Amino acid sequence: NSTSPVSEIVVNWGDGTTTRPSTGARVDSHIYRSTGDTPSRSFTINVTVTNTGGRGFAVADEIVKDRPPTVTITGLSPSPQNTGQLVQLNFTASDSDGTISAVRVDWGDDSKPDLILTISSNSMCPATNCVLPLGAIILVRWEDPAMIAQGTIIAFRPVGWADTNYLVIHRVVSVMPAGAQSGCSQVGFYTKGDANSADDPWDVGCGLPISQVVGVYQSSLAPPNGPTITTYATHTYANTGNSQTQTFTILVNATDNSGSFGSQTFVKVIKNLPPSMSSVSVSPNPVVAGNSVTVLFSARDPDGTVSSISINWGDGTAIDSLGSSTTSDMHTYASAGSFTISITASDNAGSRSQATSTVTVNAPSSPTEVQTPTIFGVSPSLFYYAVLGITAIIMSLAVLITLRKRKNTSIGGQV
After folding, report:
1. Residues 156 and 246 in one domain
2. Is 73 in a helix, a strand, or coil?
3. Are residues 303 and 253 in the same domain?
């Protein structure tokens, strides 16, 4: 409001940036690049105007909010995906006004999510101790903390730390079993990650409780490219419940250095694997009609349970319905021929698989005709009867002749 002309206008935007608009300007603009490590930040803007009469000052406070990260999911491979198959989720996380500090991947199947962390000097894990180079990306698998042993690298939330989102990555130097020390009811861990020899604040008393452990170090991935992280996470879906397919919603949540987060979801259908049949054998093969045949088999389901087994013997007879744990069955074929035995296994999701085997059934052999022996063209029995009859006649004649001779001799002596 001075009548003297303005010689200089200086605007200090409060973030280390100063601008000098023209002396006749009444408007100036500025872009705040970052809010630091907070979701929002208040900046004090100081405007100084100078003329021949001196300087005038005015201040204003501006609250600037952090821009959340942007997450882009590019796909899940391979395709299609089945249970028991390792799948890879490809995504990009970027932050326009900071850096990505962590990415959380929830696979939507009630498994513990994966956590991908960016290692920095604030992680309290120097490369000289944890063998994790600064700027690297590590994948932390949410495993059972009971599996943590000495030398394992873990991510945890420090006890009593003011920032509940702050994570520390250290190597475990010792493990104290539950109850090993008075007043310590759960497993405790003692860690070391700082370059100095001073004990960490949680390396006293019962140590770091198992409840504070977020995850277990798994493997290194590619380093980030500036504010953008292009990486992947892997997972294996165990089953689809009692359905042949199940839809899972995958959530990728990225957190930046200010604590702001952005997320994106990806929907994917996972297919159930059918049961598998093995060790199918038929014995005896071939078999004679009227005799029983035995088939041996084995059925298992890689992502569930076998619910039933059925056998079609291929001869038009009724199908045998068997229990899920059955490994053999018997059958009798009534007629000769070649028959295909079909064994079908069903699982709890309704998926089926089938195995076949061929059996050859032969007709029973016809009885062999026995040739009756003969003697001079007659049966032996008739021949024997004839011989006996003739013998009897001859003997009878011999007796009559002998009697007649004796009678004649007696008469001649009396004359």
Report:
1. yes
2. strand
3. no
Q: What is the mean pLDDT of residues 226-243?
A: 79
Question: Is the same domain home to 156 and 41?
Answer: no
DSSP H or E stretch at residue 401: helix 380-414
- 13 and 90 in a single domain? The answer is no
- 289 touches 362 (CB < 8 A): yes
Domain edge (last residue) among 223, 243, 271: 271
Task: Locate 185 and state its tokens.
Answer: 């009811």
Give 80-112 pLDDT, tens digit per residue: 889 998 888 888 888 888 888 788 889 999 887
Q: Which two tokens stand for residue 184?
A: 């310590």
295, 341 in Cβ contact below 8 A? yes
Residue 152 belongs to domain spanning:
70-271
Say if residue 303 is in the same domain as residue 262: no
* Alpha-carbon span 14 to 62, nearest angstrom: 9
The phi and psi torsions of 212 (rounded to 5 degrees) equal -90, -10
Q: Tell me, yes or no, whether 16 and 37 share the same domain.
A: yes
pLDDT of amino acid 127:
37
Note the helical H segments in 56-126.
none
pTM of the model: 0.66
Q: Are residues 313 and 208 in the same domain?
A: no
Evaluate whether residue 392 is within a structural domain.
no
Lookup: tokens for 410:
């007696």
296, 279 contact by CB (below 8 A): yes
Task: Give the model's pLDDT for residue 135.
Answer: 58
| 186-197 average pLDDT score | 64
Question: What is the reported pLDDT for 152?
Answer: 73
Task: Compute φ and ψ for 59, nearest 5 degrees.
Answer: -130, 155
| DSSP code string of 123-177 | GT--HHHH---TT-EEEEE---GGG--TT-EEEEPPTT-S-TT--EEEEEEEEE-
Number of domains, the chain: 3
